[in-house]
């Protein structure tokens, strides 16, 4: 990937810097894939997967860390996220980021977990601004298994060396962890549901999930297929919540095939 650069935008009445990296920008005319990370992710946590995917498909790529993650601006000292935090990322941050970097084309969004949900919300709000979606283990409603495992993550953060491990991927690890963990465990968040907002999605959608996903059941991606006609589903055996780590080759093959098949369609 190229060197990390920063874009500055105004969000929540303050200046926010967004770290981002381009992959193979010299492949002019190739599809652009924008990678949206999970609830505890960042550019660094993707490791080499975005490059592998783009090389396999001959794509260009754009990887970035949302506010509060990686080397992007951390949450403010008193800033807490509300039930609509993913909506605000999709409806406010992502459009502002694209404007700040001068993006004037329709990208493919490749989102994992929370990043998958944000991708769905963006495509639902701005159906004419996206070429297609690839979502890995997205959430469209809250399940008990998700909350139970996020509670286990809270205990691990308090009682183990998890902060040290996550510190390799975030300048402010407390900002990243508690921003994500507290809102998911906030009781009103159990009512969060974006199923109705999928109805306005018009682009091709590929939804991938591991059969052994510890953070959600297959009802998540099957629910997308019920709402978005033509959604392609891939249910991977021997795979948990992160298909790009547990089954990277299968995730790459499915994605490249899906994007290229769409390009060949009349």
TrEMBL record:
State the source organism's domain of life.
Answer: Bacteria
The cross-references to SUPFAM superfamilies, in alphabetical order and at most eight, read:
alpha/beta-Hydrolases (SSF53474)
One Pfam family assigned to this protein is: Abhydrolase_6
Stretches assigned to the AB hydrolase-1 domain:
33-254
Gene3D superfamilies (UniProt xref)? alpha/beta hydrolase
Name the record gives this protein: Pimeloyl-ACP methyl ester carboxylesterase
């Amino acid at each position: 990937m190229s060197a990390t650069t920063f874009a500055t935008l105004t969000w929540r009445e303050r200046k926010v810097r967004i770290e981002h990296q381009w992959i193979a920008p010299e492949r002019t005319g190739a599809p652009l894939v924008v990678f949206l990370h999970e609830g505890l992710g960042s550019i660094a946590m993707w490791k080499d997967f975005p490059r592998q995917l783009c090389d396999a498909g001959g794509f260009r790529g754009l990887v970035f860390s949302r506010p509060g993650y990686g080397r992007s601006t951390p949450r403010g000292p008193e800033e807490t996220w509300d039930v609509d935090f993913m909506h605000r990322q999709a409806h406010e941050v992502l459009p502002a980021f694209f404007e700040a970097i001068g993006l004037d084309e329709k990208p493919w969004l490749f989102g994992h977990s929370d990043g998958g949900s944000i991708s769905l919300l963006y495509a639902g709000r701005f159906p004419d601004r996206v070429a297609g979606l690839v979502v890995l283990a997205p959430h469209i409603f809250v399940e008990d298994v998700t909350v139970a495992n996020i509670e286990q993550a809270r205990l691990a953060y308090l009682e183990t060396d998890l902060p040290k491990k996550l510190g390799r991927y975030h300048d402010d690890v407390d900002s990243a962890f508690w921003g994500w963990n507290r809102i998911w465990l906030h009781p009103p968040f159990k009512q969060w549901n974006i199923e109705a907002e999928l109805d306005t999605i018009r682009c091709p959608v590929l939804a991938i999930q591991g059969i052994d996903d510890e953070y959600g059941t297959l009802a998540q991606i099957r629910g997308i297929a019920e709402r978005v006609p033509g959604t392609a589903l891939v249910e991977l055996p021997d795979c948990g919540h992160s298909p790009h780590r547990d089954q990277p080759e299968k995730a790459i093959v499915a994605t490249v095939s899906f994007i290229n098949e769409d390009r060949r369609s009349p």
